Amino acid sequence: MTTELAKSYEPGDIERRWYDQWEQSGYFKPHMDTSKPAFCIQLPPPNVTGTLHMGHAFNQTIMDGLTRYYRMKGDNTVWIPGTDHAGIATQIVVERQLAEQGINRHDLGRDAFTSKVWEWKEQSGGTITSQMRRVGCSVDWDREYFTMDDVRADTVTEVFVRLFEQGLIYRGKRLSNWDPKLGTAISDLEVVSEEEDGFMWHIKYPVVGSDEFVTVATTRPETLLGDVAVAINPTDERYQHLLGKMLALPLTGRQIPVIADDYVDAAFGTGFVKITPAHDFNDYQVGKRHDTQLINVMSLQATILAKAQLFGFDGTAQGTIDLPAAYAGLSTADARKAMLADLTAQGLLLEAKPHKLMVPRGDRTGSVIEPLLTDQWFVAMSKVGDDDATGKSIAQKAIDAVESGEVRFIPENWVNTYNQWMNNIQDWCISRQLWWGHQIPAWYDEDGNIYVGRNEAEAQAKAPGKTLRREQDVLDTWFSSALVPFSTMGWPEDTPELRAFVPSQVLVTGYEIIFFWVARMIMMTTHFTGKVPFKDVYIHGMVRDHEGKKMSKSEGNVIDPVDLIDGIALAPLVDKRTTGLRRPEKAPQIAKATEKLFPDGIPAYGTDALRFTMASYATLGRSVNFDFKRAEGYRNFCNKLWNATRFVMMNVEGKDCGQDESLPLEFSFVDKWIIGRLQQAELDVTEALETYRFDLAAQTVYEFIWNEYCDWYVELAKVQLQTGNEAQQRATRRTIVRVLEVALRLTHPLMPFITEELWQTVAPLANAKKTDSIMVAAWPVAVPEKIDAAANARMDAFKDLVNAVRNLRGEMGIGPAVKAPLFIETADASIAEFIPYLKLLARLTEGSIVTKLPEDDSPVAISGDARLMLKVEVDKAAETARLTKEIGKVSAELEKLTAKLEKPGYVDKAPAHLVERDKAQLAELNDKLEKVKGQLAKLA
Known about the structure:
Elements: H1 11-24, E1 38-42, H2 54-72, E2 76-80, E3 82-83, H3 87-100, H4 105-108, H5 110-124, H6 127-134, E4 145-146, H7 150-165, E5 169-179, E6 184-186, E7 191-206, E8 213-218, E9 229-232, E10 246-249, E11 254-260, E12 273-275, H8 281-290, E13 294-298, E14 304-311, E15 317-322, H9 332-345, E16 349-362, E17 370-379, H10 394-403, E18 408-410, H11 414-422, E19 428-429, E20 431-432, E21 442-444, E22 450-452, H12 456-461, E23 469-470, E24 474-475, H13 477-481, H14 484-487, H15 496-501, E25 504-510, H16 514-529, E26 534-540, E27 542-544, H17 561-566, H18 570-578, H19 587-597, H20 607-617, E28 623-625, H21 628-652, H22 669-690, H23 694-723, H24 726-747, H25 752-762, H26 789-812, E29 820-825, H27 835-841, E30 844-850, E31 861-863, E32 866-870, H28 876-902, H29 906-909, H30 912-939
Parallel strand pairs: 1-2, 3-4, 9-11, 18-26, 25-26, 27-28, 29-30
Antiparallel strand pairs: 5-6, 5-17, 7-8, 7-16, 9-12, 10-11, 13-14, 14-15, 17-19, 20-24, 21-22, 21-23, 29-32, 31-32
């Protein structure tokens, strides 16, 4: 490895070169030494359709930082990568591609279509994993999985069969969220309810055998065709006389009863609620309590049926009833129009009031979700499985895992979110009416009996002599994802991986998938392995744009992390942000905003600067407002580190850096101070990483390297290397390289590439090249005994002195190019030790310790017990003019601020923090005015 560092830091070449080398060297693999602690982390498998976005870059910076930290600690470390087959998302992508060729999936048939999906997956499905390499993710690629590969498919089948045999999977006709565009049921979690403008229609339902009528208010009049009752609150005295009476259901010729149920809020609306249990989740529960029929009036395409289907709550079919022929085949929107016209014509529509309502839409398609009765497969959440020795349901096991502290949420307030969902959990609908996914391992005979097996032969053995047909539905994508903690470790076999890596140490994820994924992994893993899947769940915030808006393609405010790494010119950036918009009319507005924010495009920051930026944002907050200017600041930090290392190498290469431990060393208070500060940094960074406070780790690294090492120690070391004796110079060279080498190891989990490149050059000089890569070098362990209190006190006194002299220079208007002599009035002879350093840092020609400062007009500064004066020949006329001008400027500011504070009502009415700020500023200005007047008086 060459020791020559390039003059400037060019991240692109370094990143590509080192990543390939790490991967080829096998550094990403666990060492499987079971005598050492194990550290395992699971990548939340991104959709195979996906590309890297800022959330991934944030999430993966944290995961890789932890993985590199524990690897350097010597733990048996592995990070498991994989991608999710993303049933709905992938099917949509491939169907769109086929549509462009004029092909419909139904024309192809199931087998040919799934072949097309596999084809697409092989060609385009690796985008996100190649982008992960760009971010420096040190995952064990040999363990990469796909949630529909053969191993995962076998695990999914095994889990399904076992759950079915335990009586925990069943098939039933239930109300589900139906996406008519996709033609499948979706989970509650995939439904997005958006507020939209609509109407509340007030409809007359005549009371049979009287002139009376009741008024029902509804936002979905088309569903009245499936009404089975109208409900009132049991305590509503206004309508007690109507209980048990029959109502003529408009447009249908049917009669329905008035019933009483606590679900009805007597104070809301008219006090009457139509009950349509086959098309509303709340009504379903009311209908179940009253044992009504379920009347389904819609097809799977969300059109009105010619004949409504009748069912009992046990799923049994109870025949059909005719619906008005005029509405048959109409979409819900068209049926609504036609029915409202008919209601109006019959005098039954009383009024239509504008109304804001929450409309449920599918998060993938945007189509209105219809609650529909369909045959679905479910996992029982609250039932105890047959022969389960624990006596606990799947949900209870997962609740207990968190309650007992076996699984910890960080921040801990997310426990409340988890428990709220788990304590109100419904049975999990796991079937989807798609073609892409794990086909459910169930078969039916001619009579509809179900046979579940690991394969067709096993099912057939349970149905001798019968002809079987396979279930067409596939499993919810999250079913296979829920098994990841153990499906990636060789389960159901008892493998070394299963023993070593379950539970894993931590799961790093966003709050939006606590229900989708986190809870289900805890349920499935505790149920099948008896162990929790992970010990900690670190929930990080959502990455938003610089204004705090959610990044979305439709807003045109998405930042591609690869563009921050490589840079991108303005034209392609605008093109990228305005292509594929849901609302193309917003393109000019988005283009204008992009041009304003990035007038020259985005410069290349490199991976390390991006990662350090993400780490600095990793607080325990709910959201991250990403400002690319911060990335610019950390690109400068990379340059600073690079240039400091080059300076160190130029000053020590070929010289004695104390590699021979037997030679004498004479450490200055400055050397001892930086060694002590390094110990503190090691303690602080280690604690920050152990507690998932990446923001604090980044802050400590930044402050130590930039402020303490570069701005103070390296500058002071120049003096020691120029003026010290041999033992002193050796000690300084040894300190400057050894502190830098340790600082590089401390920084490596956050900025892997630049630290590897620099470490290869620095480590040999620090006697620290014990491994071929910094990746597998030992994590720095602090030695608190090296924190020298006396050296720290000396350094504090010295810093105070430097700052006092710098303030004097500023007060006197002495430019940085001008050197001046310093007089120090003090009885402390030890201050003489500071003078060589002061000359460099405070730009002095000389420094003299005197018993009394010269009688002079020059200003005096105080530092500890010392009085300081810079002796500069002053042009009295010019200085008088400058100070007079300054007095005028400060007086004007004072006058303006005083007027503001004295304005009637301002102090009482303005926000308190603004008043305090103004008062503080007033005090500062008064102080400044007195000082400047004092200087002017001395000149006179």
